[in-house]
Specification:
This protein has about 400 residues and is an alpha/beta fold. It is built from 15 helices and ten strands. It has two domains: about 325 residues, TIM Barrel (Alpha-Beta Barrel); about 60 residues, no CATH class. The chain binds 5-thio-alpha-D-glucopyranose and manganese (II) ion (MN) (2 copies).
Length: about 400
Amino acid sequence: MSQRPTNSTSPSRYPNDRFVPRPEDHFTFGLWTVGNPGRDPFGLAVREVMSSVKIVRELAKLGAYGVNLHDEDLIPFGSSTAERDKIVRDFKGALAETGMKVPMATTNLFSQPVFREGAFTSNDAAVRALALQKTMRSIDLGVELGASVYVFWGGREGLETNACKDPRDAVKRFREAINFLCEYSRDSGYDLKFALEAKPNEPRGDIFLPTTGHMLAFIYTLEHPEMVGVNPEVAHEQMSGLDFSHAVGQAIEAGKLFHIDLNGQKPGRYDQDLRFASEDQKGAFFLVKLLEDSRWDGMRHFDSHPYRTEDEQGVWDFAYYSMRSYLILKDKVARFHADPEIKQILATLEKRSTTQVAGVGPTFKYDKKSAAALKAHTFDTTAMASVGYEYERLDQLTTEVLLGVR
Ligand code: GLT
Ligand code: MN
Ligand code: MN
């Protein structure tokens, strides 16, 4: 079990126990998350827009490591150079005062009316050019603030009617844009990695490259695949009915998990962006287990929104509890690994996975001799099929760890 010291700086509202978040846990929040004023398609904003300086200060008090941002979260669209410079100066002041970092930046290519038909994939070449210009400027800003990961979420890169666009053209245009921006980043001498974020739909009827798997396949068609990875989001993968930790696992195994968006989602709904681990605690547990077991060293970034019911205190509760739940699940992962009965089932599995058959295995690499031996071998499939795997018990023990009785 993890032995975390308690932290006397934890705000008095929250328990002073071993789940107090600290900067070394590498928790980050988008400015657009805690800063979300609660506007939705049916209702107006319910909270005041908070300044980025205030967000940085409050999150620092709660134990976060940093904040991430879109260009427009910090600098309103259409600001003059003088306005931009003042905003950046004040923001940098807040970072210096608190020690907070900006590990990731991204471009807003979805809010402005000009991008309503798409940005990099628009049928209008002037819009595609504008999207590239906006992204180059936003990359400069991100690098100036210290970001080492740059996220691409193509919110408007989709359609409602297939009559308007051949999907092959959309993919080609998206590739052209990413290739262009990889060159721009290299040419500028930036040490930046790009992380592509998939979503199947919303705000468009359908969005191109809808899952993390699609993104992974696309990356290997780029001119600089080594620069580009993925930024999977819990809610987006669940909207497609997929198991999130499988997408993340494939990305980690390929060395392509450059960033992650943690949140919560009920199946079969719009993108809810709920507080991390507020839904599907078992899925959240297996995700944390995967990230911790693989010693993934990226940022634990929360991309979610406080409930619309909340006032400002509720916003900070939302942020604090996101981090706290991650730490509680991390502790559950340690309990899972330390549990003697779980250990015993896993040891039996391990033994089963490492036996040799006909002098071949347990890993399989082709050579003529072992292929011939394997081809000639007679398997006792009845005996092999007769031994169960004990997964009912394994799952129950895992569930009991999660429910707090083990
Ligand atoms: C927007 C979206 C998120 C993306 C952000 C990055 S913007 O809030 O819903 O999933 O990660 O562009
Ligand atoms: Mn996201
Ligand atoms: Mn989302």
